[in-house]
Write a structure and sequence with these properties.
Elements lengths: L2 E6 L3 H13 L2 E7 L8 E2 L2 E5 L3 H5 L5 E4 L4 H14 L8 E2 L4 E2 L4 E2 L4 E2 L4 E2 L4 E2 L4 E2 L4 E2 L4 E2 L4 E2 L4 E2 L4 E2 L4 E2 L4 E2 L4 E2 L4 E2 L4 E2 L7 E4 L4 E5 L8
Parallel strand pairs: 1-2, 1-5, 2-4, 6-9, 7-10, 8-11, 9-12, 10-13, 11-14, 12-15, 14-17, 15-18, 16-19, 17-20, 18-21, 19-22, 21-23
Antiparallel strand pairs: 3-4, 23-24
Length: 219
Amino acid sequence: MLQSIVVFGAGGHAKTVIDVIEKQGLYRIIGLLDSNRSAHDVVYDYNILGDESWLSLHSDAIDGAIVAIGDNWTRSCIVSKLKAFVPTLSFITAIHPSAELARGSRVGVGSVVMAGAVINSDATVDEHCILYPHTSIDHDSRVGSFVSFAPQSVTGGNVSINDYTAIAIGATIAHGITIGEHSVIGAGATVLTNIPSHTIAYGTPARVIRPRGIGERYL
């Protein structure tokens, strides 16, 4: 029997997450939650049930949830809010059937791994991350929680990327590099040296352009 879940979010990113969940074939989506949409609106044939307060009354009707919000910091705030409403709430992991997870790799709860993504041997992706299509995390790398990799961004082996950091489209991170938390690596960047926390970096080779505040939007 399929587990019953709700998806928090009803925007463009949520549509991509719904597609992954449907193709994974492990869960039955009973509806969507979104505080910015009217109840009973429909997205991809799923009704919007309400906002996060819906969980307080109906948590016994579901087996889990996933937060389908693209912005890393916003996603973390929603996860915290949902846990406050239902401390026992479980989060699912959505992995597209065409993704490749090598031996020894691990993906944390709440994360989404999209079509064609690769997580290589003994690499770890922690909780509530997003790997968009055709991203690649190479062997023995460590990715923190609430991290996002845009399409076709890649790492070498033994890379460390800390919490809340966003890697933009087509960025390349060389072997052994460490990137701090709450940072953004710009589109097409080539990262050859370590990047500190709370910064925006881009270019080839990538260099720090300016500081970045916690929660500053990048989408």
